[in-house]
Prior knowledge:
The complex is a heterodimer of chains A (about 200) and B (about 575). Chain A is α+β, with helices and mostly antiparallel strands and about 200 residues long. Helix content of chain A is about 30%, strand content about 30%. Chain A has one domain (about 5-190). In chain A, the strands form 2 sheets. In chain A, strands 2-3-4-8-7-6-5 form a 7-stranded antiparallel sheet. A two-stranded antiparallel sheet of chain A has the order 1-9. Chain A is globular. Chain B contains 19 helices and 10 strands. Chain B has helices at about 40-65, 65-85, 90-100, 105-120, 125-150, 170-185, 190-215, 220-240, 260-275, 320-335, 350-365, 405-420, 455-470, 475-480, 485-495, 505-510, 515-525, 535-560, 560-565, and strands at about 280-285, 295-300, 310-320, 370-380, 385-390, 395, 420-425, 430-435, 440, 450. In chain B, strand 8 (about 430-435) and strand 9 form a beta hairpin. The interface between A and B is large, with 43 and 44 residues.
Amino acid sequence: MNASSLRAGATRARRRLAVAAAVVAGAVVVSGCSASHYQRVSCSSHSRQSIFVLVAQAVPSATLMPCANPLPGGWSVGGFEVRSGLTRFWLDSDRAGARAAEVRLTGSCDVAGATQLPSTSRGWPPVQRYEAPAARQPPATVRYYRFTGGCVTYRLTFSRQSAPALFDQADQFLGFTTRSRYVNGVRKKQGLTLCGAGAPPCRG
Amino acid sequence: MATDGAGTSPSRSLTPQRGPGGGGRRRRPSGEPPPLPRNLGVSGRVWITLTASLVAIIGLVLASQALASGFDRWNAAVLRGIVAIRTGWLTTLMVGVNTVLTSQWTIRVLRVGTLVALVGLRRWRHLGVFLGSVVVVELSAYQLALLVASPRPMDVRVIGTWEGFSFPSPPVAALAVTLVGMVYALLPPGQPRSWGKWAAGATLLLLGLARMYLAVDHPTDLWSAVILGVSVPVVAFRFFAPNEVYPVTYRRAKAAHLDVGGRRGQAIRTAVQEQLGMTVLDIQPVGLEGSAGSTPLRLRVAAGDREPERDLFAKLYAKSHVRADRSYKLGRTILYGALEDEAPFQSVRRFVEYEDYTLLRLHRVGIPVPAPFGFVEITPEREYLIVMEFFTGAQEIGTAPVDDRVIDSGLLLIRRLWDGGLAHRDVKPANLMVRDGRVLLVDAFFVQVRPSPWRQAVDLANMMLCLAVRTDAERVYRHALRYFTEDDIAEAFAATRGVASPTQLRSVLKQDGRDLVAQFRALAPARQPVAIQHWSLRRVGLSLLVLALAVLAVLVVVQNWAVVA
């Protein structure tokens, strides 16, 4: 084999390598390696692709973070948005339509005019619940869940009166997970500090 | 008849003969690259390698939690060192830099400005590559962010606003693809593009420093975003709009004309030497103003065993010319129906093979055309150069003296075409040369064998018009009767209206001021005009298809507008 043949062979090999790398890149990007929207916001999620560390960074003062309990048939997590100061995810229903329910976490919320409901606590710090006066046209329900350092606004595009069965289902979706769980997890796995509530002060 | 691999034949008297071995010719061995191999360039290969490395690292990080934690700790250590220098004024400055450079308005103005500029410059290919790069980078960054799901930096206080996962940094990738796309789509190669690259690099560096200072992104987020945002447009432009074929230039030049300096110039010399056995001493563009479908060149070749040092004429054809020819014919088919009565070419090789064949054919029936030397391959299926005799001492008919001898010569040329069952289809002053009182015909690309009678009639009328512009209609008509009947001439001018004449001839007639077509029609017997517009199912179907594709293209742009702008 002469030098030119070797050069040509090397050129072909490089070309094949480049094509293979591009194909792998494309395959990785478009493959189903990503977790589903539900897996990312599920209360029982252990996926490293869950959004809760990011949520803890978005609203660092919040001691609790909203999550989704298992969904009955006809419901799915439509999408989520996490950015500094705000986190929200929404659920689509085959009966009530897209974005039939939306969960929003912020540092605080205005509950003036809302009726306080009995507090709830299922293994997490106490949460104060409020419900805004029901809108009739179009029917909608807005609930607030206040806790140390944060507030969750839970908005439904229907009311108990307009869709009682859906309302009962939606009442079960919203769950909470504690920030401290992720603070401890990051410290243990990576040896780093997830800055904010429940963590030591960070640099800068 | 025996022919060699390049299509030359023993009958070509001007072809140099240099002994039994092909005299200076060399067969390219299998596997050896062609004279001008398709090349992504050093930077293109570097960016492809970086992208491949990035993909490999992502795969490893996803597979190994320990490796991911290692990267996190390294990122945190770097950022701890950077945030240690935070001071009031510097923080204000960095917040400002980050706000301005990552603002959706900044990106939007840059992208929309580039799109408007490219539309204004009618640089459609660059426009498509720019849009494609932006869409690919935006969607890839989004998908990668979901896949890797990297949170924002830890251990340090984050200043400023952010959105979504951090790897790869979406605003940095968006700015990178925009700036690099602008550099390749708008700036000519050389110093302007070099400055543009430095400016884009400096801007990205400044933004990267600002985002690390504010601890909004990890160093790896920024590095991966730059790799993604730079490699996609660099490779896309090098691959789909290489500067050698689609040059970015602001000189007043036709897009069809390719640069014949640098690598291409060297490739032409090598190809002509190896495939035709001639040593090229100099390459000069020639007659660019009269050519829109190729790059015409004058090659100065060294003396051979039997020939002195001399000039040859050559035409460089590239894939862009095939596409332009296809669009031209499609447009004419939609506008005029059966005016273009031949199918478009499917490849550059077919292009040059056809012109080589028509030259040989014309040569054989005694039409005075340049003696063909065959063609050479520059880049397989992408670029070919057809080489022929250069008419030394000939003048274009528009500037040469035109006497009775020249008139007869021009008319006789058309008579021979008719008798040979041929039509030239592009008879215009730029394609008619005069030497020693004889009309010579150049550019055989549009020649048709067994054409429609209408085509042949149009050739006659165009030749008579070319001759009459330099003399007068009555004199040309009188001479024409020696070679054609009155009915032939009547048919020619019944067939020739508007678009049937080449653009250059129409322009010359307009400048002349005399209504020569009307004068010829008055001289010839009366005849009903030959219809140019022909309706057919194919024409209707093509028109509807083009309309549907245009609507689809607009819809695609509208649907992806949110991603782009």
